[in-house]
Design goal:
- With 124 residues, this protein is mainly β.
- 0% of the residues lie in helices and 50% in strands.
- Strands 2, 4, 5, 6, 9, 10 and 11 form a seven-stranded mixed sheet that branches. The chain has a four-stranded antiparallel sheet with strand order 1-3-8-7, with no helix packed on it.
- The protein starts with a strand and ends with a strand.
- The relative contact order is 0.32.
């Protein structure tokens, strides 16, 4: 497994941008796809974005497509989630996750390591 530490969350106004980071350690980072999920109060954890081992493929949930961009720097063992045009509905705890495989996936059961989460709050 891999250890994941998220950072970059905070409280912003609607329309603002934030960049979340997820630093990984413990296994070969570049061999695994990565993903971001979020969980709002009273709701289940939901898929938001995934990126393949090389960064060549990405996939986004419809709710964030066009506003969020996922990238990775394998030399730094870090993935970045750039979030723009934030809306109050984006308020949630955001979790970084490492997949078992190299390809993109939106399936929760294909991720075997999770970070502790970082809070993002968007005010109207």
């Amino acid at each position: 497994q891999v250890q994941l530490v998220e950072s970059g969350g905070g409280l912003v106004q609607a329309g603002a941008s934030l960049r979340l980071s997820c630093a990984a350690s413990g296994r070969t980072f570049s061999s695994h796809a990565m993903g971001w999920f979020r969980q709002a109060p009273g709701q289940e954890r939901a898929f938001e974005a995934t990126i393949s081992w090389s960064g060549g493929s990405t996939y986004y949930a419809d709710s964030v497509k066009g506003r969020f961009t996922l990238s990775r720097d394998n030399a730094k063992n870090t993935v970045y989630l750039q979030m723009t045009s934030l809306i109050p509905e984006d308020t949630a705890v955001y979790y970084c996750a490492s997949a078992r495989y190299f390809r993109v996936t939106m399936r929760t059961d294909e991720y075997d390591s999770w970070g502790q989460g970082t809070q993002v709050s968007v005010s109207s």
